[in-house]
Amino acid sequence: MSGTDFCHLHVHSHYSLLDGANRIDDLVAAAVKDGQPALALTDHGNMFGAIELYKKCRAAGIKPIVGCEIYLSKGSHREKHHKTTNPYFHLTLLARNEVGYKNLVQIASEAYVNGYSMRPRVDKAFLAEHSAGITALSGCLSGEVNRLFLDGQEEAAIQAAGDYQDIFGKEHFYLELQRNGIHIQTKVNEEMVRLHQRSGMPLVATNDIHYLRKEDCQAHDVLLCIQTNSKVNDEKRWRMDTDTLWFHTADQMKAIFRDLPDAVRNTVVIAEQIDLQIQLGKYRVPKFVSETKESSEELFRRLCGEGFRRLYPAPSAQHHDRLEMEIEVIKKMGFVDYFLIVWDFIRHSRAIGVPVGPGRGSAAGSIVAYCLGITQVDPIKYDLLFERFLNSERISMPDIDIDFCRDGREKVIQYVRQRYGEECVAQIITFNTMASRLAVRDVGRALDIPLPEVDRIAKKVPDGPGASLKAALETDAELKEIQSSNPEYGRLLDTATFLEGLARHAGVHAAGVVIGDSPLKDLVPLYRNKEDITTQYPMTDLEDVGLLKMDFLGLKTLTVLEKALELIGRHRGEQIALDTSAFDDPKTYELLSQGKTLGVFQLESEGMRKLLQKLKPDCFEDIIAVLALYRPGPLGSGMVDTFVECKHGRKAIKYLHPALEQVLKETYGVIVYQEQVMRITNVLAGFSLNEADGLRKAMGKKKPEIMAKYRQKFIDGAGANGVSKKVAEEIWTLMEFFGGYGFNKSHTTAYAILTYQTAWLRANYATEFLAANMTCESTDTDKVKEFLDECRASGIELRPPDVNRSEKEFDLEQAAIRYSLEAIKGLGAKPVEAILATRSAQTPPRFRGLKSFCRIVDPTQVNKLSIEALVKAGAFDFTGWDRGVLFAEIEDAMALGAERQRDERAGQGNLFDLLEEAPAPRAPGAGTGAEEEEKPSYPAAVWSARERLIREREAIGFYLSSHPTTRVESLARALRTSTVAEVDPSAEEAVLVGLVNALSVRIISKGRFVGQKMARFVLEDTTGTRGVVVFAELYNRIRDMLQNDLVVTVRGKVSRRPDEEGPPEIIAEQIEPLEHALRAFNGVVEIRVRPEEIEKLPSLLPLCERYPGSRPILFELELEPQPRRVRSGPGFRVHPSEGFLEDVQKILGADRVALRKLVAQRS
Fold this sequence. Notes:
The protein contains 46 helices and 27 strands. By secondary structure, the chain is of the alpha/beta class. Strands 1, 2, 3, 4, 5, 6, 7 and 8 form an eight-stranded mixed sheet that branches. Strands 18-19-20-22-21 form a five-stranded mixed beta barrel. Strands 23, 24, 25, 26 and 27 form a five-stranded mixed sheet that branches. Strand 7, helix 7 and strand 8 (203-206) form a beta-alpha-beta unit. The chain is globular. The termini are far apart.
């Protein structure tokens, strides 16, 4: 082995979660730079990084040493231990060969699956059974031998070392020395050296690496604080007792152990004994066991034939040839069992009623997948290419990802477990890393920087996929200024940059499932994540070791479709089969052309709606194209505009060669799909479709050296087919430009089916479709509110929750939608199930009032908070009592209910139990005993309209029964304001009346107003919401007035940055409470009175005294045959405030009072 005569054997990466701070790339680079011949990875209790280390060391030309620092239990590892000071020991294990690697996999798996108690543990008995091929080092200060020496138990320490020699063999157990400046470590080292001198047990020098550079010590210390949820300045917190755990060079290690050169050389002796070859790239597809006596290939061919005859009753030669070609390629590549496994669980899914998507990814380009029912896309009809999915010249596992109904996905995974064995199936681990903002918040908490300051800085940091704090600090002047303005902020950002991207904790991959051809614990290490068993290797590493990986994706859209169809069947008696759609419904294309796509799969964004309004799709191919076009690349390249203009004939379609028309006709001459690039090279230059797929891949990755070879081949091939060099070069340039933006047509075609199906339901069964969407979004208040607004815009009534009428999910009630019980905040699945079960047990199945409800529901399932939420949401409005009255009654009703339940259990009764209960009257009065029982004890505890709505929003998340601005709409109109929906994005100014929501205040960090405060809030009215920005100058004037739930008038500039999607913000120039604005109103108060309401007019007189002002009242008497208008005299003038308006509405009802400009008096 070449290189220096030292290598590191005790090394922790960031996969020692929140303990190690090393990236494997950095460790490998450091070892290579120092000339070390090998590098070990010994993370705490796991092998998460083993394959990554193996690949990267091999690529860098050094030897990978796969290891693990295990936790060794004192007793049986399968017994949960009680918390003691040191319930387990550490031991460093290194795999010498394939046998050792497999044993290490077994040890790591057993520790998590059966031995987890505080830490993943195994015991000595298990270790002895799986010791072959493993070299062991005695470990750090937490090792058993070290611990016994520290405790003064010399004989026990010698015995323990002997035990390890017996387990691993004398030549494969080493006494591990670390010189890290810790006093007790020095003492242990002395004992270890004496033991070596007496027994001949070999020594080895290590450094327990936790971070890369000496200067990383402080950042690593912050990482430990994040792990233990402590502060850096906490004196009693856990911390490392040394600052030397960095990657030392070989020379530094030799200097540290100059008196023990053999301990240093032994690192290389151990490395030379390592001969581990992990086989990568060889696929281990499980054998499909048929229920018949057929072989896999026989069954595969039969199923393909049956599906082919069903789908193609009159096939052409092209269909036959395509099927035969695909079957032969799949057989040759050894993937027959793979296809049968997928066919089997999809078949089972449909059999148990779990909806399956029409296809996903390039698999939709396979006629075999279509015939097997794996996809529902005809690849011949849409010119989809099998080679895009499976290239016989590029051996790689096919990738068939499946969409399932979100609610049924777990049933399918459970079937796969049962079918192939629990021990052969697992979900896949994933690592949640410290993203940029999370890193800032974590570090800020550890450094004990005040939360508002950390929050302010974190919001400056870019977030989302691809966001980088390091890159932002190089380019963002504001962040640079924050970093340099304050040493504390500098440390915060520097440390967060260091920690950014490190693994924070392990989770379960949202979709990935792996199926082994034998028990997985024999193939890869396993991990227990609460109740889930997952692999310890992440998805890419599993693919490298050849395991069959599949994505079982839970797609909400399939759940929406299922629920919508169920509602249609239950309420209309219609059974609809969406998969037989002809994609030719005019109403659907009209809906799409109008951009009315809330809830329509993939088409909901504002930008997509605008594109649809421009494009006006009128065929299924247009839907396929729009899904491919609405991406940053095509939108920025101008090809979308070309597509739209050519479709509508405003721009001529040009083909550089006549042969291109057959390929590009459906996309109006624009190259939209990767398959079109493949087809062009095939038609014009004679490329095989496998070669064309290679070009497609090179274009996507923009590899110039590969592209140059393909370019010459294309020009030569085109020339051989009679295409001039000039035209061939132009076509190549066109392909190179558009091909870089091309999308997978197979995927977009499959997804276009879901798009069409959801659009078709929205166009033809809007009520059911919107109800299904609200059920699926019930935990997302903002999304439910969007659908509520869509219902209102479509003339569909959304009725409030009702304990007697509501179901668990949103349901239909005549032509209206009834609000779901489970969507009420604070009312989870268990209380809802208890309410519905109790209701159905009644005769008739209903509750008669709040008191009877409390008497019969189980208080352990439906507690006080649940009942409060029901009352606030309006679920007891059927009683006729005000919500405030009912709310005041809850505690007494629950106490009475509990007493009744105790009496019933004791066999006692109550007089009222024998009486027929009836709904309470709207006002207290005489009645039956049951009515008297339901009569509230606090009839005066009425909520104002404002409080009623605020409480309703607490329970539902938004205003449902009304809106605080509803009663002032006429006042707003009189002030010549716009609604939110009416704001013209191109206008310079807007004046609005609405409710202040989501008010946030922040300190300005730069500019003229640095250090001062500014605000943002959401202004809401009955038509929608709009963001409002309040800069410092205005905020300083109104800060004491501005608060959430205040109705205000806002005048300001309409502001929109060119790159922004969504409605423009309002930059406020003036904000005042509506009451203030009304004082300046100089019109007339108009009150409309029906004939039957004339007798109520005297009740209005006290209002004139209560709300004195200067505005006259104009009574419009709706008399027959001629209405009359009567203007009040000088003694009856009012101030048209919100209170005045509300009181008039209480007397005469809603919509009976308005503000008007001054009009001529008529009498």
